[in-house]
Amino acid sequence: MGKWTRRAFITTGVLTGGAVVIGVAIRPGNRANKVKGMMAGAGETMVNIWLKIAADNTVTVVVPHAEMGQGVHTTLPMMLADEMDADWTKVRMMEAPGTTEYANYALGKGFILGEKDFPAFLIDTVDGLFLTVTKNMGLQITGGSASVRFTGMLAMRVAGAAAKAVLLQAAADEWKVPLEELVTKDSYISHKASNRSEPFATFAAKAAELSQPAKPQLKTSKEFTIMGTSPARFDIPEKVDGTAIFGIDVALPGMKYAAIKAAPVFGAKLKSVDASMIKDMPGVQKVVQLENAVAVIADGYWLAKTALDKLTIEFEKTGNETVQQADIYAKYLVDLKAAETNGKEKKDVKQGNVENALEEAAQLVEADYKVPYLAHATMEPMNCTAHVVGEKCELWVGSQNPLGFAKSVAKALDFDAENVMVHNQYLGGGFGRRSFDDVALQAARIAKEVDYPVKLIWSREEDTRQDFYREANISRFKAALDGNGQITAWKNQFLFKHDPVEAPHIPYDVVNQLIQYSESETHVPWGYWRSVDSSMHAFFTESFMDELAHTAKKDPYEYRREQLSKAPRFLKVLDLAVEKANWGTTLPPNWGRGISLHQSFGTIVAQVVEIEIIDDALKVHRVVCAADPGFAFHPDGFEAQMESGIVYGLTAALYGEITIENGAVVQSNFHDYQMVRMNESPKIETYIIQSDNWPGGGGEPSTPGIAPALSNAIFDATGQRIRELPIKNHKLQANQKILG
Amino acid sequence: MNLKINDQDHEVDVDPATPLLWVIREQCGLTGTKFGCGIGQCGACTVQLDGVAVRSCLTPVQAAVDKKITTIEGIAPSSTELHALQRAWIEEQVPQCGYCQSGQIMSAHALLQNNVAPTDEDIDQAMSGNICRCGTYSRIKKGIKRASEELAFVSPSKTESHG
């Protein structure tokens, strides 16, 4: 438990539940004075580090997360404002600046920013948990569907409630009346007996001097007035008139543009560059050689790219130039087998006695599943603008981890950490990709070679071929059924394990389970990809579950239902999806219906998909999505995330495939790395179960379930079992029986 | 050369083969038009030349000279009003990351200019050149319908008042 990666925290943190972690926002006491200079303008008071109150009584909430479309710049202020009883129409948002000063100040408790290890003795203590949370937020990471369920719950709500407490105390002191006679509403404090009512702003300065409670009383869901409603998102108006500034839109005086080409074979270093072809090109400023890439700086991006394409570039050989995709899969099988033989498989779940149960099976079912590498393909290609002056560097970039970027750049340039500043911009899609600092490091190294700001933009081809990929994987199953078709053994072997830890786990009543994994080294860089391990394990486990249902000659929904006796929340979600989807009603010929059930990032999602096979083409008509996120604080935003995750997962299921040829990625752009478009996008209906359970994430949990629900629907329509993604590689045929 | 963008003149000095996209963004400073793929596959760079939606990443700047260029910054009737599509986009809370939305709106705008009451199929056909990785397609469709209803409601009276 010594190692704490952000995902380890995220997945572990949720298991701790709500009670113990309250108070993070305010610990170790109110130090708002120290950021006042940076954060507060004239007439504004920092009440605590998360909010300030202006003379006109507007409340500005400081949000330490990036906006990439998930609505966090609206939802987190809602959580604070509600606890504070602020007037929502007068609430504003500002993103926390990406400076180490702010993070250190805000949440630091003496740990060096970005330190990877926490002292083991602290981990098991409540205080250790506080520190872990603190570090996580201090790094300003946006990912793991974590913003609402951790920052929102642990920081925003507590900060709002604490601010309300000190504002009330200040008012009680001022008016010399008992605290309990005061009422807060719409950013006003009132005292009925003396008929007084004043805005928060009146008491802000006094309140900021008071000691804030670390564990203020939070509202129950019945008391919510803003949480659980869906006000218009703050970021949308500027996204409809072209004024929103994404990383790629940043403009600085004297700025030049850079295009780049990195070694197509991962890990290869630059050998030589012949730039003679471009030495007389007007507007071309400089050729910069990096360890594994060449960049051209010019007066415009098009010019830089055109010049770059004229260069003759050679890269060193790494030995991976002969690696083909088939070799990777072959090696996977060898490594899986070897690990099994030599007992080096890592146990993920081991309960009961799987081998005995397999021997005693009435029926044995075996299947191997396979998924390919996937790229993120954010709409905004990777880019970063950097300016290096002396020993200082400023960066403008859309980042899921701005402080992490600053730290990496400082290290790479050998600058002091406080001399690197990241100005975070809107992200044109993140999906995990923008948590990687590679483009920021390139931009900083290029900018170090010149005395003007440089905007580095990747081509789409570079973006596709220099990604950090969702891994290709193989998952092997062996299950035993008894005479009634009940599962008596579940054995699952696969490669690699990242997060969330529960990705390969099943909610079903299977006494004997053995889930294990092993490693297989490849040279292809791995990265967080929307829903991470769940993006493939839901396909594996929920497709195999469907196979078991059909083997047992049972309805796939009823079959799941019968085996959820210990998972009432799963059961409820499953039932809701089925009810809304009219499961069991007759479909037209050549149509099919499929179901899936999977939990990730604290949210349980069931999906029912309806498809039609038209000749050999697939039409996805409808997706019914039922979700239990505990509580959705902004239901419309949560619904939008469900829709988004489903379309993202649908693209992967239908088309997503990155292949390696001669050590490099074959695909390059949207013509050969195809995306779902509007005409292929199904009707999506989302139903949310609201409760007082600890909130789950929104950004990722709907992505995993679409592939299995879709594959199961294809089986329903055609009798073809899809065990390998993407679906485009399969020739689908309408079921003759149905046609008959 | 001279470019007329959103009824404003811009004097630019670039290689005539440069894609219009980069001239609009870098020389004219209008960054609402986005770079997505560079090969006309994603629609993020959609602008209009004389009212026709084009992919500015594939359009040489010289092809836009003497034409009326409209970008996302130029569809609102005034600086204090939004276009019906923009209002509909806010009403339906369409954008997520928002990066593709300028292109989406410009394609939708071109559609509605030719077809005030598009069917689902018309919308699919007109909009399938625009990729959205956040999967906002269903909301885009709702947004187009909302705007088309508003425009259909407004346009007869306009016709009347113009005689």
Low-confidence stretches of chain A: 1-31, 100-139, 736-740
Number of strands of chain B: 5
Integer tally of domains of chain A: 3
| CA distance, first residue to last residue of chain A | 59 Å
Percent in helix of chain A: 25-40%
Query: What class would the helix/strand composition of chain B place it in?
Result: alpha+beta
Structure description:
- Chain A is of the alpha+beta class and 740 residues long.
- Chain A folds into three domains: 6-239, Aldehyde Oxidoreductase, domain 4 (2-Layer Sandwich); 247-318 and 382-457, 2-Layer Sandwich (Aldehyde Oxidoreductase, domain 4); 542-739, Aldehyde Oxidoreductase, domain 4, CATH 3.30.365.
- In chain A, strand 3, helix 3 and strand 4 form a beta-alpha-beta unit.
- In chain A, helix 13 (402-413) packs across helix 14 and helix 16 packs parallel to helix 20 (703-718).
- Chain A starts with 5 loop residues before the first helix and ends with a helix.
- Mean pLDDT of chain A is 88; it is low at 1-31, 100-139 and 736-740.
- Chain B has 163 residues and is of the alpha+beta class.
- Chain B has two domains: 2-74, Beta-grasp domain (Ubiquitin-like (UB roll), Roll); 84-161, DNA polymerase, domain 1.
- In chain B, 39% of the residues lie in helices and 12% in strands.
- Chain B has five helices and five strands, in the order E-E-H-E-E-E-H-H-H-H.
- Chain B is globular, with a radius of gyration of 16 Å.
- In chain B, 55% of the residues are buried.
- Chains A and B meet through helix 9, helix 10 and helix 19 of A and helix 1, helix 2, helix 3, helix 4 and helix 5 of B.
Question: What distinguishing features does this structure have?
Answer:
heterodimer; A: alpha+beta; Aldehyde Oxidoreductase, domain 4; seven-stranded mixed beta sheet; 27 strands; disordered N terminus; B: about 160 residues; alpha+beta; Ubiquitin-like (UB roll); DNA polymerase, domain 1; 2 domains; five-stranded mixed beta sheet; 5 helices
